[in-house]
Amino acid sequence: MDFLTIREAVQAEIVEKKSKFIANLYPVENVEEAERLILEAKRKYNDARHNCMAYRIVKDNQIIEKSSDDGEPSGTAGSPMLNILQKQHLCNIVIIVTRYFGGVLLGTGGLIRAYSDSLLKAVEESHFIYKCQGIELLVTVDYSEFDSFKYYCKNNDILIVNVEYKELINCKIELEPDKKEKLMKDFEAKSLILKNVKEIAKKYITKSI
Question: For residue range 59-105, what is the model confidence (pLDDT) as tens digits?
């Protein structure tokens, strides 16, 4: 399952009839991380009236969804925000919107608009990345071939995530299955000069969009 997420955490804020809405949008890897961030937000904003949230997380090729109105009228906060995440096709993401009550009741429609607008403002300020199922490899290469290897990775849209300089150079790379197949063919045909290639794990990797 491929999906869209955000590169880094974003905060946005709006004021509606003296109520302040602070939206914190986070990329996450799993449910445990999302729940931890929700608890941290409740501690950080413990003087706020509400900390409403929604998240969508991919696990075992399924999407886990959860939302909470945290004391707001049912269906006015968590559900509208979850609906936006669904429509934007965003996963591995959690939104927490903190409300400081300004003394003026907003009504059901006003609350839905305020929570939705605060999330949309955060989404507008986000940098999106595309995640797809891929493979992490450990590649060993001679110093004399390293520039050629970097050029090969750049031309084939292969991400070098880590480089370790020892007697030889060890590189961790992330790539899609079809690109791994091409790399192995080039390695075996000696058109790509490497000392060794080892698969580390299958994982979600970042893909260019």
Answer: 988 999 999 999 999 999 999 999 999 999 999 999 999 999 998 98
For the record, the structure tokens of 124 come out as 């507008």
Residue 132 pairs in a beta bridge with 205
- Distance in angstroms (rounded) separating the CA atoms of residues 16 and 126: 22
Residue 31 β-bridge partners: none
Q: Which residues of 142-161 are buried (b: 16+ CB within 10 A; e: fewer)?
A: eeebeeebeebbeeeebbee
Length of the chain counted residue by residue: 209
Q: At what angle do helices 107-124 and 78-87 cross, to 10 degrees?
A: 40
pLDDT at res. 209: 58
Q: What spatial distance separates the first Cα and last Cα of the chain, rounded to whole Å?
A: 16
Give the per-residue pLDDT at 208: 59
Whether the Cβ atoms of residue 149 and residue 142 lie closer than 8 Å to each other: no
The one-character DSSP state at 1 is: -
CATH of domain 3-126: 3.30.230.30
Q: Where does the chain hold its CATH 3.30.70.250 domain(s)?
A: 132-207
How far apart are alpha carbons 77 and 68 in whole angstroms? Answer: 7
132-207 fold: Alpha-Beta Plaits (3.30.70)
